[in-house]
Design brief:
It is found in: Membrane. The protein is mainly alpha-helical and 398 residues long. The protein folds into two domains: 183 residues, Growth Hormone, Chain: A, CATH 1.20.1250.20; 175 residues, MFS general substrate transporter like domains (Growth Hormone, Chain: A, Up-down Bundle), CATH 1.20.1250. It is built from 14 helices and no strands. It is globular.
């Protein structure tokens, strides 16, 4: 019994998006996993090279420098070359650079390794989000938030596993080399099901290397900046606020970021279904209100329990905002998806980097409790600018 060509084509169209979705989800997991493996070994490497906290902070800037340089360049490459090829090279390179961080025999080589590590991280971020936009368009409904949820799962699971290896005294070179090779193999396998080409646009031979955000793209960039600034601030200041301002013990202080991370992961996996029901605009509006309202109330009632509730609200509120904005950016009319994603991602990454020092500078003037109010203000900005995603969202019910 023969299957008609038409029926075979329909079957392929149904199977390819499912396989591609799993492949892209695997790459998001890998991005979170690679970074978590590195973070777990920072104390060991700091001790090995006898770095002060100040020297370590300076060295870690290399990651940011590398990422900010390669994000726009990756968008340009995605507009001109095969999406699957660029994505595979970026993520595989990210895995392969990981062992170099443990092998660096001195500060200079560690700095250079971190710049390279950041460069591949930035390229990975733009390229896998571009793949996510392409797969989401094939599905015809929101799925981007679940991809970012896999990033969170990768980070949390590998942070725990890497922490255990560090506790057991496993050599960091052996650890990071094994992790890089294992994750690299997964990249090679998953790359077979990535989407080729750029299905959202035709030809972009005249596109610039970097698109300066203007108009609606500027609004989306501001939303991404505000959202990721809040994430960065929670990572660096939640524990300090609990321990130093609210006088909790170190155990409860550590729970602040854990609660934030957990609710963010949960929010990302619930986000796609809620976005389909409520629409992208209302999801962003509600996210900004939940994050800003919950944190604002917890700052007014300055108690450890309310602080944990506030951090949980920030995680849940911000969870779907960046995935929705990146999805919308990749579908912006008149500009190649990779370049639009690079512009918005770079703006968001700048927010993630600016958040911790901004909160720190403000805390010197108005104390940490008042400085965290910046996140409340930026959450309000997110709510106001939610309308910027309306023209491109894959499913709108607003």
């Amino acid at each position: 019994m023969f299957i008609s060509q038409e029926r075979l084509d329909e079957q392929v169209q149904k199977e390819v998006p499912s396989a591609s979705r799993l492949a892209v989800a695997a790459l998001f997991y890998i991005q979170g996993a690679v970074f978590a493996n590195w973070v777990a070994r920072i104390p060991t490497i700091q001790q090995k090279l006898e770095l002060s906290n100040g020297e370590l902070g300076r060295v870690l800037l290399g990651i940011a420098i590398g990422a900010v340089v390669t994000m726009p360049a990756t968008g340009w490459l995605l507009a001109r070359f095969d999406n699957r090829l660029i994505t595979t090279i970026a993520v595989l390179g990210y895995c392969m650079v990981l062992p170099l961080l443990a092998l660096a025999p001195n500060v200079t080589l560690l700095e250079l390794s971190l710049v390279l590590f950041g460069a591949f991280n930035g390229a990975t971020d733009v390229s896998i989000n571009s793949q996510g936009v392409d797969v989401e368009k094939r599905y015809g409904r929101p799925i981007m938030s679940s991809f970012h949820g896999m990033f969170s799962i990768g980070g949390m699971s590998c942070a725990a596993g890497s922490g255990l290896l560090a506790y057991l005294g496993v050599n960091p070179v052996l650890h990071l080399l094994s992790a890089g090779l294992l994750l690299g193999i997964v990249v090679i396998v998953a790359s077979h099901w990535l989407l080729s080409g750029d299905i959202t646009t035709d030809s972009h031979d005249e596109e610039p290397v970097f698109a300066l955000p203007t108009g609606i793209l500027l609004g989306m960039s501001i939303v991404a900046f505000c959202g990721l600034l809040g994430e960065g601030a929670m990572a660096d200041w939640s524990a300090i606020y609990l321990q130093n301002t609210l006088n909790t013990g170190p155990g409860l202080a550590a729970a602040g970021y854990a609660v934030f991370s957990m609710t963010m992961a949960v929010g990302r996996f619930l986000g796609d279904g809620l976005t389909q029901k409520l629409g992208s605009v209302w999801m962003i509006r509600l996210g900004g209100l939940v994050a800003g309202g919950g944190l604002g109330l917890s700052l007014l009632i300055a108690q450890p329990v309310t602080a944990l509730i506030g951090f949980a609200c920030v995680g849940m509120g911000l969870a779907s905002i960046v995935p929705i904005v990146l999805s919308a950016a990749g579908l912006t009319p008149g500009i190649a998806p990779g370049i639009a994603l690079a512009a918005v991602t770079t703006a968001g990454y700048c927010g993630f980097l600016c958040g911790p020092p901004l909160i720190g500078f403000a805390a010197d003037v108005i104390e940490l409790r008042g400085a965290l109010g910046i996140i409340v203000i930026l959450s309000a900005v997110i709510t106001v600018l939610a309308q910027t995603v309306l023209h491109t969202a894959p499913s709108e019910n607003s």
